[in-house]
Amino acid sequence: MSKFAKLKEVVAATEADVEKFYNSGNGAAGTRLRKALQEIKGIAQEIRTEITEKKNAGK
């Protein structure tokens, strides 16, 4: 559950950069957004692995 909380935290933190990039055309915000999305991808993969392990342990 802590990884899911971290995922929600990162998504919430990127909201300002999304606004800056799409509404203001701020290139630096786009770079920060891409970095955050890469972090989200990694966290999501860790969560997927954890879920698979837990699911298979019950069999």
Automatic annotation (TrEMBL):
Function per UniProt: Might have a role analogous to that of eukaryotic histone proteins.
Pfam families: Hc1 (PF07432)
Family to which this protein belongs: Belongs to the histone H1/H5 family. HCT subfamily.
GO molecular function: DNA binding; structural constituent of chromatin
Name of this chain's protein: Histone H1
Organism: Pedobacter cryoconitis
InterPro entries linked: Hc1 (IPR010886)
